[in-house]
Amino acid sequence: MYRFVLTALTAMALAAPAAPALAQTRAAPADAVKLDTKRIDAMLAKMIADGRAVGGSVLVWKDGREVHFAARGVADREANRPFARDTLVQIYSMTKPVTGVALMQLWEQGKFRLDDPLARYLPDFANMQVQDGAGPDGKPLWRAASRPITIRDVLRHTAGFAYGDGPTPAHKAFAAADPLNPQNTLAEFGRRLAKVPLLSEPGTEWHYSVSVDVQALLVERLSGMKFTDYVQKHIFDPLKMREAGWHQPMDRLPRFAATYVKGPSGMTRQPEAAMRERNFPGVPLTMGGAGIVAPIDDYMRFARMLLNGGELDGARLLKPATIRLMATDMLDPAIKEREWLPGKIDGGFGVNFAVRTARPATPDRNRGAVGEFFWDGAASTLFWVDPANNMAVVFFVQTFPFDGTLHTDIRKAVYGAEYLGPKGD
Question: What is the domain range of residue 23?
């Protein structure tokens, strides 16, 4: 399925680390993004003024240096505490790329093949069922899946897993099994999930799912280490991400950004009880798909490593060829069911990243250049890596429900409303 001719690219990246290690097509001067920092600041201020965010920050790294940081509004409205550079933010699904890097490190070590059956390493997943309509009594029918789930399926959200309750019997079975209960260990999560029927045959549809939590369980099984310990040792420590993590010391609580829910009467503060339950010591479940808390500089170090082809400040986490693999669209054209993914980007999906494969088709589409890869979080956070422009951007807010207009607008502020990317793409 994948044909990568990367030897020359890898050699070039290692020989000239200052160059954008992943760019196949570097933006020509006429096509390059023209940053306007005042435009970025104005957009951030507007988001707060029009009630879509209480506070936020944005950090832009380009051509080997920081070119802009801005913070506006408050991290805690009730305490009148400004949103600052050291504000700690719950990044939710921006955790997923971190988990993907951890698992792909083990792939580089030969611990598994992409098309290996998942059950080779997690035997509970050997005999999966798929929903198959209903019987005369109205009760759901199940049948055996036509093929095993592969690790590639788990990497690209085509395993058929659900991600909570929903309209189908398989969704209801997921809710009843409660695999993501925070009192479960990762091992118990896996045992419960393996008993839940799939939404679809493996490899046939894209369903955003608990696949990345399965990736975290794979990291534990393949490495012999607790997932959080593995990530700390092999990602956070080498990258000098000094405060990123799932469980924070209680003395950092005053630096947390509160989360706010947008409703008819404006922004309402979300109760802190759930945050305390998730983000402080004592919770057994450490999800691969969510849970990391970080300041913006820590996450930018992770983004810079990706932009540099797997290396930062002498610490190499992955080979450039592996980053290129992760940032390549893995979805077969035959996979037509993609839920809401097409609404995010003109492109597809790689390893825990959405991947841009076409220029923005219409004026309302998110701005960017072909080759970019990104992901976001439930509280409307966002980051992206743009190899064509040798740029990475991290955007922090804490707004529920997820607001895609914030992403459209911050991209317009960074790129300009008319930007389409290099013409050669």
Answer: 7-97+245-415
260 with 336, same domain?
yes
Q: Is residue 132 part of a domain?
A: yes
- 424 assigned to some structural domain: no
Distances (CA, A) of 213 to 274, 323, 325, 352: 19, 20, 20, 11
Distance (Å, whole) CA 126 – CA 121: 10
Q: H helices within 254-295, ranges in order?
A: 273-279
Q: How many domains are there within the chain? A: 2
Does residue 239 lie within any of the structural domains?
Answer: no
Q: Give the pLDDT band of residue 11 (cuts 50, 70, 90).
A: very low
CA 175 to the chain's CA centroid = 23
Judge if 113 and 257 occupy the same domain.
no
Q: Are residues 93 and 143 in the same domain?
A: no
Provide the 10 A C-beta neighbour count for residue 415.
25
Q: What are the backbone angles phi and psi of residue 52, rounded to the nearest 5°?
A: -90, -15
370 pLDDT tier (thresholds 50, 70, 90): very high
Q: Tens of pLDDT along 108-150?
A: 999 999 999 999 999 999 999 998 888 888 889 999 999 999 9
**Which CATH number fits the domain that encloses residue 339?**
3.40.710.10
Helix (H) or strand (E) holding 229: helix 227-231
Of the residues 227, 259, 290, the one at which a domain ends:
227
Measuring CA to CA, which residue among 156, 152, 166 is closest to residue 197?
A: 166
Q: In angstroms, how far apart are the furthest CA atoms of the chain? A: 67
Rounded Cα gap, residues 158 and 154, in angstroms: 6
3-state secondary structure of 142: strand
* Contact assessment for residue 219 and residue 51, using Cβ atoms and an 8 Å cutoff: no
